[in-house]
Design goal:
It is a single chain. By secondary structure, the protein is an alpha+beta fold. The chain has one domain (3-115): Alpha-Beta Plaits (2-Layer Sandwich), CATH 3.30.70. It has three helices and six strands. It has helices at residues 14-30, 62-69, 75-84, and strands spanning 3-11, 34-38, 53-59, 85-93, 99-100, 111-112. It has a four-stranded antiparallel β-sheet. The protein is globular and about 50 Å long.
């Protein structure tokens, strides 16, 4: 099942953050990830999410996303990002065709077909 890493990033030190931007794509690719969104204009439609720079990465699985985030290769870049930006980062598991919605179509109660 595909998995997405969603980050809201506010860069506080652009000069040093440039090193992160240069080096991180190769590590993302090494773990099967790819950029879906990398920055770009944000136009709020509802509510106040207080977002600045959105990054969405797609990985083939939760394991791949976790492996990337906790890898030895990413560790120095994670430290650099934390020093040069303020971020909120979450992992989101996608519901694919192998999930069935709960009672009355409630996706909050979706269950993997293997558990039915």
């Amino acid at each position: 099942m595909r998995c997405y890493l969603f980050a809201n990033v506010v860069v506080t030190d652009r000069e040093r953050f440039a090193e992160y931007l240069e080096k991180v794509p190769a590590i993302i690719a090494q773990y099967g990830g790819r950029y879906v969104v990398r920055g770009g204009a944000v136009r709020p439609l509802e509510g106040n999410l207080n977002v600045e720079r959105i990054v969405i990465l797609e990985f083939p699985s939760r394991d791949a996303a976790d492996s990337f985030y906790h890898s030895e290769e990413y560790a120095p870049l994670l430290k650099l990002r934390m020093q040069t930006a303020q971020s909120q980062v979450v992992i989101i598991e996608a519901l694919g065709a192998d999930y069935v919605a709960g009672a009355d179509g409630d996706i909050n109660l979706a269950v993997h077909k293997s558990r039915i």
